[in-house]
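Before drawing any conclusions, I looked closely at one protein's amino acid sequence and its backbone structure tokens, quoted below without any editing.
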Amino acid sequence: MEKNFINNLYFRILGPIAYGFMVYILVLLVNDRLAELTSNFELFEVLFCVALTYANFEALRFLVEVLEKQFKSSKRLQIRMFVQFGVAMLVSLCITYLMVAAYFIYLVGFSTFSTELYLFGSIFLVSSLFYNALYLSLLFLHRRNEIVLQKEMNLKKNIEYRLQAFKNEVNPTLLYHSLETLISLIYENRDKADDYINSLANYYRYALDNKQDELTPLAKDIAAGKNLIALLNFDNAYIHLSDETEAGFQEFEIVPGSVPQLIFHLVRNSIISATHPLNITLFTQGEAVLGFKCKLNEKLQPVEKPLREIKDLQQAYAFYTEEPIVRVKAYQEVTIKVPLLQSALEEIE
């Protein structure tokens, strides 16, 4: 972990100075000499405490780097904790004993310093525990954040894939129905066949033109929905679309193909005939909601995957908003509500 605090240059330089001075104050407190600090301030003693702190911190940092290479697997973190705490305490005790002994024997000239050795040993033993506890806490937090971030990245990629798959999807049922109609028209009326080919080409041209667009204006998608109805009504005009959306909502954006998909969903799940026409009403509601409403006239035998279009749309919209696509059946009517979107640029403006 190169960005961890133990490898920060400022911490390595300034940390031992500040902590060494604190150790010196603590030693004076223990020895009841704090009141004599101004009169008996010993710079050499302070420098010794700083040097002792520096040696301990650098040794602990080296130990952490060694263990980081040995315990790369996240499954061995518990073993590493025990090893790191145990070895760190042993290293701190050894360094403290050697440096304190060298200080009192060779510099001060004392042969008895058991009290001081016990005091410094206790201080740096606790220091090593705090040092490693702080490091391991940050390590666990860093790895946990990495796991969460990786999950978020995978989720984002998955949603992006689903969004692109939705926009690239060719409606196989509609295409099959269109080809059947076209084949029959070729034999019956070639002029009508030409018109039908033009309508079919316009519909799929819209899908191809918006293939790379993340969002499209609501007005354009409604126009594509009307084009779809023109295709479905080529033989019999039993499907009607009433656009009651307010003018102020036309500039809102929507995932390309949303309106045609939901129109096709209603068509696919409804009985449509001269006596039971499908009248779909488009309306806007609230701050940014597009609604589809029609009389409930479901087929007696449910179609395969009746909510397929809505589920596909929900996966696509999940990339942009947490608002769900709502489908409600009540009072012999079915209502579908889709959240309207705005691009980041428009929101800033």
